[in-house]
Every structure is written in C-alpha cells, then in structure tokens.
Amino acid sequence: MCTAGLPWRTVASRMSSGFDDDTDIQVGLLNNVESSTVPGFENRLDWPLVVGVSVMLLRPASRGRVFLEDADPHAKPVIELGLGTVEEDVDRLCHGVRKAWSILRSPALADRFEETQFWTDKMVANDRILRSGVRNIMNPGWHAAGSSRMGPASDPMAVVDQEGRVHGTENLRVVDASVFPSMPSVPTNLTTIMLAERIAGSAK
Fold it and tell me: Taking every annotated instance into account, which residue ranges of this chain make up the domain Glucose-methanol-choline oxidoreductase C-terminal (predicted)?
C-alpha cells in the first residue's frame, strides 16, 4: 500500500455523505504519505510512510474574506477562511467522516492496518466528540477560491471581467482560482488551467 516516491493520492470518489441525497463529498485514499510532512506526525509515528483517508466537502456554504487593514502597499492582506461558519458544512463533514470510517473499517482494508491514528470507533459514534474533532482538524485543502470573483463592473462584489481584467485599472489581470464566481464541485487545479489557457488565448 505504500511505495516511496509515488503520488499521495491515487484513488478518489465523489459520493453522498448521507446527510441527504446530494453528492456532497469527495473521499480520497492517501497512500505513500511521508509522516515527516504532516504537522504533529513526525515525532508521533514510528513509520516513515503512512496511509490515510480524506473527506472533502465539495460545495461548502461557509465563506471567508480577504481584505487590507490599511492603505500601506507593503501591508500583507488579512485572510479569514471562515471554515465551519455554516453549521450545515460541519454536519455534512461529520456524515462524511462516518462514511469514510466505514470504508476504512471494512474487512478488505481494516486487516491491513497495524494501527489507526486519531479516530476510534467510539469517537466516530459519539456525535459531540465527532463534531469537535471535525471542527479542530478541518482545513481548506489548498482549494480556496472566489476572493476576486469574476463578473460585470455593475456587480459591487466583482473584481475582474470575463477576461480576467481588473475593473477600474489598466494592464492588470488576475487569472487563478480567486476569480471563480462560484465554487466548483471538484478540486480547482484543472479548472484553473482551463481558465488560464482560455484567457491567454483570447489575450493574444
């Protein structure tokens, strides 16, 4: 299950968390994870390589923001992720963790593991502990999007037009996941590449 040098994530599936009938989560198998790269694991585990299961909420309702505290051009932006500010997001993630746990505990997988870190059957079965655990370990998964959303100049929340040109400026474009006007139901890398190729082609 672990081979050094191979990609971390080779198997992923989109499915319903069980919160309702919506396909709302992506469950990914993380194999070949170098324990030294995971905060808190380097001195906790005796194995150089571990496996894991991740649960990603596809369309979170929670919203963050990016803003400047002052007009100093050298000031760093303030980034507030706003994770879990909508309770339904936490509910869906809790259901997703239970779904992933049922996969992890299936006979085909459970017999291959020497030890399981963090979660236990009792923790997953306890609503209060599960919710606390989800809130404490949820992260953005490197897929933040929408802080410079695309839209017409008449939209006060829009930052760029359909070609990535920043409203009210000249010779300035933004072409990355921040211009997405809505959250895609997939990881953002391929959508961002497609957007960049399209805008680059139209700018010639």
Answer: 60-196
**Residues 122-154: pLDDT tens digits?**
999 999 999 999 999 998 887 889 999 999 999
Give per-residue pLDDT as tens, 111-129.
888 888 889 999 999 999 9
The four Cα atoms 8, 189, 136, 54 give a dihedral, to 10 degrees, of -40
Q: Does one domain contain both 89 and 121? A: yes
Is residue 23 in a domain? yes
49 and 96 share one domain: yes
Radius of gyration of the chain, Cα coordinates, nearest whole angstrom: 20
Residue 164 domain flag:
yes
Q: Which residues are catalytic?
A: 143
Picking from 85, 120, 137, the residue at the C-terminal end of a domain is 137
Domain with 178 in it: 143-204
Classify the C-alpha dihedral 110-112-114-116 as positive or negative.
negative
